[in-house]
Specification:
By secondary structure, the chain is an alpha/beta fold. Strands 3-2-1-4-5-7-6 form a seven-stranded mixed sheet. Strand 6 and strand 7 form a beta hairpin.
Length: about 270
């Protein structure tokens, strides 16, 4: 898939749906603002596929794979696509200025605010995400992106969480059913084909809402169909989550998000829509 080549963005956000293990792939999305309008500039279902967008010597892997994050390489690829520095990195993964050994005040704060809408956080521990979180935070810090927990400066790194963000985007009563691996729990009385159709319909609704915030999604993130294989459905979901991360980053940078947590860690969630 070819990506447009901007002549220099006004603002840029890199969204990363970071896997908690090295065995699972991580989606990556780059949003940029030109002429006061945000658009999707690039999206990929893994770190390697994203870097391959600007490296002709890299052949995109046939199946998205997990690997050690290399934020320097990702930022380099993003900068080449945007033709501008990256202002903000928004990551869906527990991040902290202190060692993560269990639930944090940020986890508890989001769960208190959104638990009743089925958007409580998963509990991190020493093993998961473990060193992956430390690697990402340290790489970001060395690249000049400190973890922002109270006020966002530019450049910065922030932690985000798609579930409550989507609840706010859709003005929904509870967590949206959009995870491919949970279709059986979402629609237990439906056939496998019906479940897949309902999942794709939910993705379509989310894309419609996001398109009002970030243009270009239809072209860069075409919907799968009911004949799409499970691995490709998961790849689409990871890319969608990365776009959601980028959108949350946009909201945070524009003062339309709140930080749940303390000085050590904070999860940024878009504020309720009027």
């Amino acid at each position: 898939m070819e990506h447009p080549e901007p002549t220099g963005a006004e603002r840029t956000v890199l969204g990363i749906d970071a896997a908690w293990t090295f065995t699972q792939p991580s989606g990556v999305a780059l949003a940029l603002r030109e002429n006061n309008r945000w658009k999707l500039a690039a999206v990929a279902a893994s770190y390697q596929r994203f870097m391959a967008l600007t490296d002709q010597e890299l052949v995109p892997e046939s199946k998205p794979l997990g690997r050690m994050p290399d934020l320097t390489a990702l930022l380099g690829a993003a900068k080449r696509i945007a033709r501008a520095p990256i202002d903000l990195i928004a990551v869906d993964m527990p991040l902290s200025k202190m060692p993560i050994v269990g639930r944090r005040p940020s986890d508890d704060a989001v769960s208190k605010a959104y638990g009743g809408r089925k958007c409580g956080t998963h509990s991190p521990n020493v093993e998961r995400p473990g060193q992956i979180s430390d690697i990402l935070r340290d790489q970001a810090q060395r690249a000049g992106y400190p973890l922002a927990t109270k006020v966002i400066g530019i450049p910065a790194l922030i932690e985000v969480y798609p579930h409550p963000a989507l609840v706010e985007l859709a003005c929904a009563r509870e967590r949206l059913p959009y995870k491919a691996q949970k279709v059986g729990a979402y629609w237990p009385s439906s056939s496998p084909l019906e479940r897949k159709g309902k999942l794709i319909d939910q993705w379509s609704q989310i894309l419609t809402l996001l398109e009002a915030e970030i243009s270009g999604l239809d072209a860069m993130l075409p919907l799968p169909n009911t004949s799409t294989r499970s691995v490709e459905l998961k790849a689409f979901e990871d890319m969608l989550d990365a776009v959601i991360c980028a959108w949350i980053g946009i909201c945070a940078m524009e003062g339309r998000a709140a930080a749940f947590g303390d000085d050590a860690s904070a999860i940024w969630v878009p504020t309720a829509r009027a």
